[in-house]
Amino acid sequence: MQNDIQEILISEEEIQGKIKELGEVLSKEFADRNPLVICVLKGAFIFMADLVKNITVPLEMDFMAVSSYGASTKSSGVVKIIKDLDQTVEGRDVLIVEDIIDSGLTLSHLIELLQNRGAKSTTVVTLFDKPSGRSVNLEADYTGFVLPDAFVVGYGLDYAEHYRNLPYIGILKPEIYTS
Ligand code: PRP
Ligand code: MN
Ligand code: MG
Q: Which Gene3D superfamilies does the entry mention (predicted)?
């Protein structure tokens, strides 16, 4: 276990098992719809890579980078588009892939944007959900795991850009972000 991690909350095996299940369900949901699967960078990149390998129907992918946290542990409430999509979403069934929903601000902003651009439908799959953090009313269509109110990192989730590469979800030692 990485030295800055206090406790492993969700193991690599549990995560991979859940992604297989999500892939099966989404393969049924999106059969014959050729969805545009959108990865919300940076946090969702590892989930995206593992998830699409488990979706067995034709799809296209695109990537968008947004950020609301910066180097802080709290959402700033301001969602910045760092990199926009390359493709148009007009008339498309869009599947938004997120690593985590906390306040819900990032996704509510993104859904509104994609709907305004003429997406035919927007579906959200998130691997993690932290309902205790919500400041807007937003639920994912598909959720992997519900997390407690702790500062977690790993599997794409960062603290000041670190720990994204951990294959599990861990609780960060408080002295790391309070010092
Ligand atoms: C994190 C996470 C989600 C968002 C969730 O991204 O990856 O995208 O925050 O929080 P919210 O529901 O309160 O909006 P972040 O802004 O840290 O950027 P990153 O993905 O590049 O780490
Ligand atoms: Mn993110
Ligand atoms: Mg982040």
A: 3.40.50.2020
Q: Which ligand is nearest to the CA of 75?
A: 1
114-137 pLDDT, tens digit per residue, is 999 999 999 999 999 999 999 999
pTM comes to 0.95
**Dihedral angle sign, alpha carbons of residues 12, 14, 17, 23:** negative
List 102, 141, 149, 158, catalytic entry: 102
State the CATH number of the domain containing residue 18: 3.40.50.2020
**Would you place residue 79 in the very low, low, confident or very high pLDDT band (cuts 50, 70, 90)?**
confident
The residue segments making up the domain with residue 91 are 10-152
Point out the ligand 1 atom lying closest to the alpha carbon of residue 67: 16
Q: Which ligand is nearest to the CA of 76?
A: 1
CB under 5 Å of ion ligand 3: residues = 69, 158
ipTM of the complex: 0.98
**Residue 67 phi, psi (nearest 5):** -145, 135
